[in-house]
Amino acid sequence: MDGEGSPPSVEQGSGEQDDVSATTRKRRDRSKTIVSERKRRVRMKEKLYELRALVPNITKMDKASIIADAVVYVKNLQAHAMKLKEEVAALETQPMSPAVRQQHQQQQQKQNAAAGRRQQGRGGAPSADSDGEEGSPGPAGARVTHVGATQVGDGRFFVTVECERRDGVAAPLCAAVESLACFRVESSSLGRSGPDRVVSTHVLMVHTHEKNKFFVVRSN
Amino acid sequence: MDGEGSPPSVEQGSGEQDDVSATTRKRRDRSKTIVSERKRRVRMKEKLYELRALVPNITKMDKASIIADAVVYVKNLQAHAMKLKEEVAALETQPMSPAVRQQHQQQQQKQNAAAGRRQQGRGGAPSADSDGEEGSPGPAGARVTHVGATQVGDGRFFVTVECERRDGVAAPLCAAVESLACFRVESSSLGRSGPDRVVSTHVLMVHTHEKNKFFVVRSN
DNA sequence: GAAGACACGTGATTC
DNA sequence: TGAATCACGTGTCTT
């Protein structure tokens, strides 16, 4: 309780026989634990740097922020990996002759930002892609070429929107995602998926009081 | 050097009337820093638990091992995602004559066989949503708390903008960045930098014909 | 000078 | 018994 400093000052000079052994033992023990603790700190710091090296988008060098950035990065990565896996599965099971694939690409011009609870893989279609209506001209005029949504956790969804790459597309894209009132944007990122395509990925969290409105549409 | 001075009883006669104020100030400062440091530790620990909840196979609860496990997990996840992405690209662009597809499937099987241990998120982690988010009913108009810009290449700049966390901040943030007419947004991402802060990072590319208009302002 | 981050040495606890 | 991990308060350094 009383945080009084134990003075490490030496009181030698009087006792000889076991006094010396006691003090030496104590001191040796102290230095051992000290160096051990130091090594422990170094180990953790190195691991932290190692982690930081793996995470792109490091915002602050701050120790806690490194872990925080790693957390959101891992979340995005997990979601992305899951989505890719499903995509692979879908592509593998569907033979997709060239004609069909071409049609598929053309058909994927959907720009529904209000894709609320509309994911019904009807007829056992395992695709998580929601089927939108006709693509109306976007806010910036860029056509959306792909929209995907996948549940990646309890009330958490991974959403990807791909559209043409034009100047000023990011803001309406973010606005569209944020306009989903029952979601909260947990993280989002924008990058290029081709010479003329940008893709924005988001992790959305359902507001807790709306959680029961959503359910999973399992693919298989 | 040896920081003594805990006894708040008497100071030497140098101070006339500052004796009480000096000790009070010192003590207040002490407790302030103490509680601040304590909060820092708590923050880091929470972030660490949050990270641990994301990593499926946690070997030891040890603090450094958590980061180590996270490191190897992120490495695996990155590799896995890259492989999946290549796979998707290959599947999408292949004309897929029957022979080719068969070969591809064989290759697929080999990959699956080689990847003996699979780590798929399974570790039923309890909901680590430590942050009780509150519905702040604010429209846009969140205050920007930090802006940074660094040149990271030839005509390429890394820009960070931090502001208050409100619903719907991402879109105006992107709009603001995109409104810089002489830049093109190469990539951008949005995440949280604190319980009440969001930070958006962007990589901007100067349009080539404007490149000579910009130069570096070195900070230190 | 106030605030924040970090490394340090140390007491407590666990295996 | 020691080795190892953690939380703590503190000094120092940078904003």
General description of the model:
- 2 copies of one chain form a homodimer.
- The first copy, chain A, is elongated and about 85 Å long.
- Chain A has helices spanning 17-54, 63-93, 98-107, 170-178, and strands spanning 144-153, 156-164, 183-194, 197-206.
- By secondary structure, the first copy, chain A, is an alpha+beta fold.
- Chain A has a 4-stranded antiparallel sheet with strand order 1-2-4-3, with helices on both faces.
- Chain A is built from 4 helices and 4 strands; from the N terminus they run αααββαββ.
- At the A-B interface, helix 1, helix 2, helix 4 and strand 3 of A face helix 1, helix 2, helix 3, helix 4 and strand 3 of B.
- The structure holds a DNA duplex (15 and 15 nucleotides).
Features of this protein?
220 residues; homodimer; transcription (chains A, B); elongated; protein dimerization activity (chains A, B); nucleus (chains A, B); disordered N terminus; DNA-binding
Largest sheet of chain A: 4 strands, antiparallel
Rg for CA atoms of chain A? 28 Å
- Uncertain regions spanning at least 5 consecutive residues of chain A: 1-16, 97-139, 212-220
Enumerate the strands of the largest sheet of chain A in spatial order, edge to edge or round the barrel.
1-2-4-3
The class by helix and strand makeup of chain A works out as alpha+beta
> Residue-averaged pLDDT of chain A, rounded?
65
Summarize the amount of helix of chain A as a percent range.
40-55%
Helix count, DSSP H or I runs of 4 or more residues of chain A: 4
Distance between the termini of chain A: 59 Å
Instruction: Please trace the helix and strand order of chain A, writing H or E for each element.
Output: HHHEEHEE
Biggest interface, chains and residue tallies:
A-B, 63 and 64 residues
Shape of chain A: elongated
In total, how many beta strands of chain A? Answer: 4
How much of the sequence lies in strands of chain A comes to 15-25%
